[in-house]
Amino acid sequence: MSEETSTQKEWAAPEGSWASSPGNRRSMLGNRNRDTKPELLLRRLVHASGLRYRVAAKPLADMRRTADLVFRPTRVAVFVDGCFWHGCPEHFVPPKTNPGYWREKIGRNVQRDRDTDARLAEEGWLVLRFWEHQEPAECAEEVRSAVSARKRKLLGL
Ligand SMILES: [Zn+2]
Predict the structure, then answer these.
(1) Residue 70 Cα to ligand 1 middle (Å)
(2) Which of 82, 131, 132, 146 could serve as 38's disulfide partner, Cβ 3.0–4.6 Å?
(3) Strand pairing class (54-57; 67-71)
(4) Gap from CA of 92 to ligand 1 centroid (Å)
(5) In angstroms, rounded to a whole number, what is the distance separating the alpha carbons of residues 19 and 3?
């Protein structure tokens, strides 16, 4: 069995601690293995729960911003925010070179995120944002329950 296959198996049914897993340790070390990306893990888990969604789609046609998972009928937009690029309060550390530039740049990203949230909310969307450091199984459960609740509401149940 290749290492990749065993990693996928491991993540198909996550057990134990996410942080202590070899896959995550590898991605923390900077090896960008697609299969261990938190966003991909979340997508797999949500897909396995039977929900269907669009990937990297624009929730609003006239807004040039994409969400990671888009549930159009129930109007749920899910974002998995990278700890660096979106300024995670726990993990963002500006690079030693040009820290001012980076703080400003990341600050603009955060503002843009809040603006995206506000515009989506105005159009009746539910925005779910997760940090890439969050446990994918917990995020998937939150997505699942939010989408089901909105579905029930749409059906008038
Ligand atoms: Zn973080």
Answers:
(1) 22
(2) 132
(3) antiparallel
(4) 7
(5) 19
| Helical segments of 3-135, H only | 3-12, 22-28, 38-48, 99-122
CA 10 – ligand 1 centroid, Å: 23
Ligand 1: centre distance to CA 42 (Å): 16
Ligand 1 centroid distance, CA of 82 (Å) = 7
128: DSSP letter: E
All structural domains of the chain = 1-36 (no CATH), 52-154 (3.40.960.10)
Centre of ligand 1 to C-alpha 43, Å, is: 19
| For residues 10-21, average pLDDT | 37
Task: Place 126 in a pLDDT band, splitting at 50, 70 and 90.
Answer: very high
Neighbour count for residue 128 (Cβ, 10 Å)? 19
Angle between helices 3-12 and 38-48 (to 10 degrees): 60
Count H helices, E strands: the chain?
Answer: 5, 4
Distance of CA 132 to the CA centre of its chain: 6
> Which pTM was predicted?
0.76
